[in-house]
Amino acid sequence: MIWRLLSDWLLRLRMAYWRLVYLGYRSRYTIHPGFLFNGAGIQLYGDGRIELGNNSYIGELSTIQAASDHAVRIGEHCHVSHNVRIYTASACADSDFRLGRPPAISGDVSIEDGVWVGANTYIGPGITIGANAVVGANSVVTRSIPTSEIWGGVPARFIRQKRAPTVSTTNSQLGDAGP
Asked: How far is 49 from 52, CA to CA, in rounded Å?
């Protein structure tokens, strides 16, 4: 009984801590009040701009880095799953790392409206993901993704165009038995 009470108390304390962290992000970056931090351990950092849109969310343990003079923009109605990494700057892979600090590759990252990014995905500098696109889980995005396309893999590659739905989708059609 005591362990359950202690566990509940620690969980509440953990969530209160992360709510305070997210309030700090909201004061530092441009985050719509309708944007949801969905879980603990989400990190936003850097001297650049971060803009997060209405009715969008980012999942637990995700990271957004905005290097100085660069920006990350996530549009409206976006679903960014857990453990996603978004970076505006990274080391140049072709550099000789034995010679000291390698030059950086950098660029803005834009995730347009209505995008779904699967879990454990990496999105590198200079990438734009077009509106209504899907990035499959465990992907490494090294090229921009056009509107309404589904991409996945390492590196992420084109899978197919999204199909227009022919009938209304309900929970039972999605395999959800409902309440």
From this structure: 10
User: Nearest-5° angle of CA 35, CA 45, CA 21?
Assistant: 55
User: Looking at the predicted structure, is the pLDDT value of residue 150 above 90?
Assistant: yes
Q: Are 88 and 124 in contact (CB under 8 A)?
A: no
Count CA within 13 A, CB hemisphere, residue 116.
Answer: 10
Token digits of residue 55: 């009715």
Structure tokens at 23: 């309030």
The string of pLDDT tens digits covering residues 44-76 is: 999 999 999 999 999 999 999 999 999 999 999
Helix (H, G, I), strand (E, B) or coil at 144: coil
**Per-residue burial over 106-121, b = 16 or more CB atoms within 10 Å of its CB, e = otherwise:** bbbbbbbbbbbbbbbb
HSE (side-chain half, CA atoms, 13 Å) at 142: 8
Domains of the chain and CATH, by start: 2-94+103-161 (2.160.10.10)
